[in-house]
Specification:
Elements: E1 3-7, E2 10-13, E3 18-25, E4 34-39, E5 46-51, E6 58-60, E7 68-73, E8 78-83, E9 92-98, E10 101-102, E11 107-108, E12 112-113, E13 117-122
Length: 123
């Protein structure tokens, strides 16, 4: 049974940075395309970024372009989301997703979700 576990959330001031990590245990995560989503209070869950299983291809939401970087280390079964220049509107619970469908233009979430990690950006 595969488990997806996020870590790295926290409280940071606007302009600061955080790095989220996502590890898929129980099976080699290099077999999965993976993505990050977020959900702010009272809002729908939204796509943030995705990475192909090889790591050679990435996708970003417009809100993340230029500030966030998704990467992966398949030897460690881990995907990262480096978030720089954080803004209060980035405040949300961030969820890692695995086993999605990755194409050149979009990522459709798969069945495997982590429990989420909270990111709070203060003024």
């Amino acid at each position: 049974q595969v488990q997806v576990v996020e870590s790295g959330g926290g409280l940071v001031q606007a302009g600061g940075f955080l790095r989220l990590s996502c590890t898929a245990s129980g099976r080699t995560s290099s077999r999965y395309d993976m993505g990050w989503f977020r959900q702010a209070p009272g809002k729908e869950r939204e796509f943030v970024a995705a990475i192909s299983r090889s790591g050679y291809s990435t996708l970003y939401a417009n809100s993340a372009k230029g500030r966030f970087t998704i990467s992966r280390d398949n030897a460690k079964n881990t995907v990262y989301l480096q978030m720089n220049s954080l803004k209060p509107e980035d405040t949300a619970d961030y969820y890692c997703n695995a086993d999605g469908t990755y194409t050149q233009f979009y990522y459709i979430a798969g069945r495997l979700w982590g429990q989420g990690t909270q990111v709070t950006v203060s003024l």
